[in-house]
Amino acid sequence: MSKQPAIASMAEDNLAAGGVAAVDRALTLLAAFGNGTPVLSLSALAERTRLYKSTVLRLLASLEHAHLVVRRADGCYVLGSGVARLHAVYAQSSSSESLVMPVLHELVAATRESAAFHVRQGSRRICLYRVDSPQPVRDHIRAGELLPLDRGTGGRVLQPTATRATRHSVNTSAARRSSR
């Protein structure tokens, strides 16, 4: 009898229509790393993605080969230089930085408050660019951070552009969080 997971993996929750399940699982592993958790153990990766450790190990081998993750001497994993290379290519192909950053600097100079540029990514938003306030007390969102679409001004601004299904997903997620 085969051992089935009690809960579907995060990758299965987010399968791309017509996509490749193994690729979705590998991308889910990469997404498990965050600003607050740049170093993850095999157990932590398996727990966060709800994948079997054996599956996680096989996927990590492929990601290591592509330099997207690195296994440290202590056995934990961190993002690899391949991620930085991809970001550099993305930054070169995107002219938005040269347009957005001067405006953010102007906003911060005029208001003495932090300014950020977010884009919607499904039912969440990602901070692409940010300029911190000169004030000693401020929020600490960083560029690259994924945030809920239902929280903060940036999320509320982006909500009208969301599809009906995405708005429902965001509202359901918010309701679950508030009932905890």
Overall description:
This protein is of the alpha+beta class and 180 residues long. It has 2 domains: 10-84, Orthogonal Bundle (Arc Repressor Mutant, subunit A); 91-178, GAF domain (Beta-Lactamase). Helix content is 49%, strand content 14%. It has 8 helices and 6 strands. It has helices at 10-13, 21-32, 42-49, 53-65, 81-93, 96-111, 152-158, 164-178, and strands at residues 39-40, 69-71, 77-79, 115-121, 124-131, 146-148. The strands form 2 sheets. The protein has a 3-stranded antiparallel sheet. A 3-stranded antiparallel sheet has the order 4-5-6. Helix 2 (21-32) crosses helix 4 (53-65). The longest helix is centred in the middle third of the chain and has 16 residues, at 96-111. The two termini are 36 Å apart. The mean pLDDT is 82. InterPro entries: GAF-like_dom_sf, HTH_MetabolicPath_Reg, Tscrpt_reg_IclR_C, Tscrpt_reg_IclR_N, WH-like_DNA-bd_sf, WH_DNA-bd_sf. Residues 20-81 form the HTH iclR-type domain.
